[in-house]
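user: can you give me the structure for this one chain? tokens are fine.
assistant: on it. calling the predictor now.
[tool input]
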Amino acid sequence: MTAWGLQMNLSDPKTKIVTVHPSASMRQLINTELRNRGYQDVTGVPDLQSVLDILEKDMIHWLITPVLSDENLNVFQILRLVTEQASLMDLHVSFLLDSQTPAHYLSKAFDLGLFSYHRNIQTKVDVERELDGLLALYENLERSSSLVAATFLRRLLIEEKRTADLLRFEKSLFRLHSGHFKLFLSLAEAHLMNEEYPAANQLAQRSLLVAPELKPELTSLFAHYKSNIEELQTPASKQDLLGIKSCLLVEPHAATRAAVEKLLLQLGIEELKPFSDADAALKWVKQGNKPELVIFEWGLKEIPGPIFVQQIRELIGLGKPLTVMNKDLTERDMPILREMGVTDRIKKPIEAHKFLQDIIWLIHQDRTPSEPFILMQKIRQAMQEQDFEHLATYTKRFMDSPKASATDKILLQAELAYFRGQYRNAKSLAIEALKLGPVGVETLNLLGKSLMKLRDFESALTCLENAEIVSPKNVQRICDLAEVHLEMENDELFEVKLDEAKAISPESPVIIEVETKAALMHKDSSKAKALMQSLPSLFNIVSFTNNRAISLIRCQRYEDGTALYNEAIHAIPDEKVEVRAIL
């Protein structure tokens, strides 16, 4: 168990389980079977109030209960708590149903996040059967709780013959979990049940491009509905499988570009914008277009890959998948590429089957991230956007991930401390991460930034320069180095670094920020004011002014400190009244 709690995992014997039943003998029957399967923490209680009493003191991971209610409490109130309270996000609820349970209860329960339901459990054999089925399903679905719940909801919709609802559900589920190729079968069956044969056929054809091993099951499925995959080769309409509306493709080689275009169109992407050169692609994005997926060749002629990555990230943000294609890049290159903003890589030459699987996996990870490096991108995006709800969700998922190393988790805690302004804590955690090793460029970078905030510029310079050796051409880090030289009054080196950053990304906001800081320090308020006009946010300028002024005043340089405040106040654009008030 970590400081973040034990994540729900039915395969973990430490999973905390509470069973509810008014009958003591039934509780004993269920609990004995659970303990026989290795679960170490199983508690039986007679009513839902006892569940609330436990939740006030401890976490529950799995609650197994009939649909009970009394005057003050019912099971739907428990489900609402799970939905509304982030601290209960790992509580999974399973219903024990009898013949008296109203049918509409289940639909309502799934709306509130029900995990599973089990009918007419009365004997030991019944309990064994249901647990066998649930645990086998959990393992077959790669321990995905959401896919398990989806399986039970699918059964309910089929039982109730709600085929239109089933189709809507399967479409949503597929887009959320597009990396699970078995969902092709469920979605195809939903189309067939609604007699949408052309759409089912088109889906089958596309699924065979990605997962040819599904052909026997698809053939059997179509035969069951008296339809034949081979008979319906030309679908009536284009079907969007991934929910991706817009994709930017930058590939200088015409034959490769055409091959990739064809494959992406087979996935049903609505707007595909192919470019042979990076300048034209950037111009298209600067016109206000926001692609949901970017695929590009690393070895671009006009703009080197590292520069293109940073420029495109400044335009589209951190949250969209950005995949590099290249024949030479390997997994060893990925830590540096990811620091720049690359999400994934696709190896050339392009193989249709592997390419489609990679793209579907990438979209799946974008929507339901589980890989630590993608979770980290999502966390940084949430920090940048001050999105505290997603920040909490992704942070917990990262800290619970068995794929994230101890060093990764300490580094994340260091980044969170830095984000909260706890710079001494960030420095200590970054040093702890360095001691655990291996020494990563992101750790050196964060330590350098923390030391800058603590105004230990000589140490910060050492960290940032070492990071720069490992991963050059990072505009943000070059600007940090420029700022260090500025604070150390090395104006010549400041200009060198500023020119270096401008050569990579001349319009970058981080460059304008560091130029603004220099103008304030050099008492050029008119230049600072002009620069501030083009900045989307003045938060970093206010932070810099406050941090430096307080430091000057602590060193008894009172006039310099107040002069800096005055320079900043006069430089704030007239319309930024609230920023001036803060200063």
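assistant: here you go. The CA atoms of residues 179 and 360 lie 5 Å apart. The two ends are 44 Å apart (CA to CA).
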